[in-house]
Amino acid sequence: MPGTHTKFKAALVQMRTSLSVEKNIDDASKLIREAKGLGAQYIQTPEMTNIMEQGRDGLFAQLKEEERDDALAAFRQLARDLKVHLHLGSLAIKASEDKAVNRSFLIGPDGEVVVRYDKIHLFDVQLPGGESYRESNTYRPGEIAVTADLPWGRLGLTICYDLRFPALYRALASAGAHFLAVPAAFTKQTGEAHWHVLQRARAIETGSFVLAAAQGGHHENGRDTFGHSLIIDPWGKVLAEGGTDPQVVIAEIDAEEVAKVRARIPSLEHGRRFEVAGTVQERGHLHLVGKAS
Question: In this structure, which topology does domain 8-268+280-289 adopt according to CATH?
Answer without folding.
Answer: Nitrilase/N-carbamoyl-D-aminoacid amidohydrolase (3.60.110)
